[in-house]
Amino acid sequence: MNNYQKLRRAHIQNKKLIGVLIDPENYTPKLLTRLVDEIKLCAVDFILVGGSMVTESVDNVVRTLKQQLPQPVVLFPGHPAQVSRHADALFFLSLISGRNPDLLIGQHVQSAPYIRKLNLEVIPTGYILIDGGQPSAVQYMSQTQPIPADKTDILQATAIAGQMLGLKALYLEAGSGALNPVTTRAITAVRQVVDIPIICGGGISAQEQLQQTLKAGADMVVIGNALEKDPQNLSRILSCNIVS
Q1: Which CATH superfamily is domain 3-238 in?
Q2: For the chain, which residues make up each domain, given as ranges?
Q3: Quick check: 230 pLDDT over 60?
């Protein structure tokens, strides 16, 4: 069973998943070691690696994670250069909330031949940026505007279009360091109109937020920025027993 099949099966069975997002730019070797120790204590299903900046350390981080942890490592690239042959899979992200052609198809054309040579599992994923209360790094780097959280009609139309285009998952995010996570109203609105896995990230820093996001219809919640401040936040957010 490949990684998409695991995600799809969890969606069908209503089994909730937890992901951890690691931006190599924000981790020293010491901080990464502390996070790995925390992941070993908690029920984490997927580890995502990627960020907004181009960094040469992606491959090193992926290899370290593969050597020390059993969870699949999935690339979450913010640039075509953020690819590692040591990863288990790659979210092939299309920024469907924006109108930047480079992030809809341009960068994909650049990276596709190389990714194919690496024989990486590719998961076509629609990336939907939702307003999190303040400008995010994703917004700045992508030069696109997030969809307002209360514009559920636009969110739903975008999600429907993504599924009709053949995308296999949707990633809803308020952006790294978001003031507010994706609202439960926005998640529920998207859940009502698509039957593909929904992944949510950005601004999750408390157990209550995590539980509300899952209850609203997310299949997987991704925790990232809160762990850069203190890896022990993972244990606090999950209580290490939310996912069995």
Answers
A1: FMN-linked oxidoreductases (3.20.20.390)
A2: 3-238
A3: yes
